[in-house]
Write a structure and sequence with these properties.
Length: 367
């Protein structure tokens, strides 16, 4: 007997809907093969929700997410909504509240460059002969993103802006546990990134990570200042296994990681809350790339980030490990066969350029 998993599907804007549709071909194929019953509820989010309801995150969407085991998210935003006040824009008005509301404090962003795709990376290929595989664990609900006070006001006749960086020790401890656990399941190396030469937040961060490391003696812990980490990522991405860092540094470094891996269109992400009684996480899963309005609606976007996000959802929120493994190896098979969407196509011998749906069909077939 299989359990029924409830998922909220929030496709959003730009390429969101088309890569989401494509990912359903793969998710459904995996569900069929492993006798998984999925109850899907599609809801509006982002610019699409603004157009239909006036709000980037309607109550109905929140209610659907609350009733689900996981959220599969596409992407939000685009030029149409860029001139709205910041707090009403799709990104700030939907993404940040969803993270905070569901306490999704742990953001896992894999930065993988497959050996067969090193030529798509802007990093000199002699520096990454075997590609690389880094996991960024970013704290997602604290730090300067959410600290109070946060304001722009007039002081002594001029405008003054304030953002506050705050970390409680408990917030650092819980993200450190996630990162050490992830490192244990990989290559046992964790690099904590901070700015402890300047910021008090980082002094506490480093001290706390060192304390927690005592519980994980098998994991080798190192520390880098964020400016140096940004350099080392370009110089020797292969030297990293897992990186753990705060919200703002993680935002920046994960984009750098995504860029050097060759294509944003390949990278999924997971934002997780606390573990429930079944040892699973409520989570939101989304491609690392954005809504790519420039190519939206053309059927050329790479659906792999969305497909791998669905795999992460199966793994972390639904406990369907075999189905997650099957999707991940089906993606590898499609790449090995030479199938390439435009973002990873270089015209090398053996490559075939395909669109969004053809790529997803090939992956579904390989399951
Ligand atoms: C991300 C994005 C968001 C962030 C923006 C859209 C608010 O850049 O998910 O990395 O800064 O966290
Ligand atoms: Mg970002």
């Amino acid at each position: 007997m299989s359990t029924t998993h409830k998922i909220s599907i929030l496709a959003g804007d730009g390429i969101g809907p088309e890569v989401m549709d494509a990912s359903m071909l793969v998710l459904d194929a995996a569900a069929k093969k492993f006798s998984i019953t999925l109850e899907k509820d599609s809801q509006l989010v982002g610019g699409a929700a603004i157009d239909a309801t006036g709000s980037p995150l309607p109550e109905e969407t929140i209610a659907s997410c609350q009733a689900s085991d996981a959220i599969l998210f596409g992407s939000v935003g685009g030029p149409k909504w860029e001139n709205l006040p910041p707090e009403q824009q799709p990104e700030r008005g939907a993404l940040l509240p969803l993270r905070k509301k569901f306490n999704l404090f742990a953001n896992l962003r894999p930065g993988v460059c497959l050996p067969s795709l090193t030529h798509a990376s802007p990093v000199k290929n002699e520096l990454i002969p075997n590609g690389f595989d880094v996991l960024c664990v970013r704290e997602l609900t604290g730090g300067i993103y959410f600290g109070q006070p946060k304001s722009i006001s007039e002081v002594d006749g001029e405008l003054v802006a304030i953002d506050t960086m705050v970390y409680k020790k408990s917030e650092i401890e819980r993200i450190a546990h996630i990162a050490f656990t992830a490192a244990k399941a990989r290559d046992n190396r964790l690099c904590s990134v901070d700015k402890a030469n300047v910021l008090q937040n980082s002094v506490l961060w480093r001290q706390t990570v060192i304390e927690i490391s005592k519980e994980y003696p098998e994991v080798e812990l190192s520390h880098l200042y964020v400016d140096n980490a940004a350099m080392q990522l370009i110089k020797q991405p292969g030297s990293f296994d897992v990186i753990v860092t705060g919200n703002l540094f993680g935002d920046i470094l994960s984009d750098e990681m995504a860029m050097i891996s060759g294509s944003l269109g390949m990278l999924p992400s997971a934002s997780l809350g606390n573990k429930n009684d079944n040892g699973l996480y409520f989570g939101m899963y989304e491609p690392s790339g954005g809504s790519a309005p420039d190519i939206a609606g053309q059927g050329v976007a790479n659906p792999i980030a969305q497909i791998l996000s669905a795999a992460m959802m199966l793994r972390y929120s639904l406990g369907e490990t075999a189905a997650a493994d099957a999707i991940e190896s089906a993606v590898d098979k499609a790449i090995d066969k030479g199938l390439r969407t435009g973002d990873i196509f270089t015209g090398k011998e053996g490559e075939t350029k395909v669109g969004t749906v053809a790529m997803a069909e090939a992956i579904a077939e390989a399951i």
